[in-house]
Design a protein that fits this description.
alpha/beta, 12% strand, six-stranded mixed β-sheet, 12 helices
Length: 282
Amino acid sequence: MENAQRPTMRSRKLGQRLRAIREDRGLTLQKAARLLNRTPSSLSKLETGKRGIRRPALEHMLDRYEISDPGERQALYDLARDSGKKGWWLRYEGKLAPSMLDYISLESDAASIKSHQLHLVPGLMQTEEYAREVIGSAKVLGVEPDIDGLVEVRMRRQQLLFEEDAPHLWVVVYETVVHQQFGGRQVARGQLRRLIELAELPNVTFQILPFSAGTHPGLNGSFTTLETNDLSVVLVENLTTGWYLEDPDEISQYDMVFDHQRARALSPSASRSFVERIVSET
């Protein structure tokens, strides 16, 4: 039986691909629904990511659409399987924005995470004290964030860095990030030590883009690229929200910027020494 659901990145991607297949075959929604013995409404919900589909029903659909390529079929099976994936983050449903729940789900499956940050230590590398200061800054917008709950989520997310199949986290931060003193000197020192510790992990690469690099292609803002087995997305955030970029051409542009940034940044060993020097001086 299929289930109604909140659209996720994967369910939307699955729906987009199924719609493209239908349209490539010159089928209207109504004609395809008759071919598949479905209602137009249920097919529409599937193509917009609002309804999931189980493997047997998807196999039937691909058979009727005459999709025989094993690789293409498997990619769609993977999207369908993971589109409604459940994990520890679901207990925060109602407390976190749906887009954040979707992000954590993708993050938990990521093989690679690339983070370019101009102002903040990325969430996966923040200490509890630093995270508390950053999250609490939202008070100036007239909101009262659940600081304890959000810090708890951020700390729980970090556990994936220590798992057996941990993703490769590659971080490039502008020099400003390591000079910030959110919460005062002790919080800042604790955060810098945390960066040094995490940079020692075999699956973490940490680099600093120094002021001396001058003008650089990442001036327009921070972003994070997630790559899982079935998709790639870029998360771009601003003051009040964040949005995903899924178009391959857009993603390639962000990949190009990240490649430029890491090439111009200090090496991982030089970056670690840079942070150690700041710790010794503060």
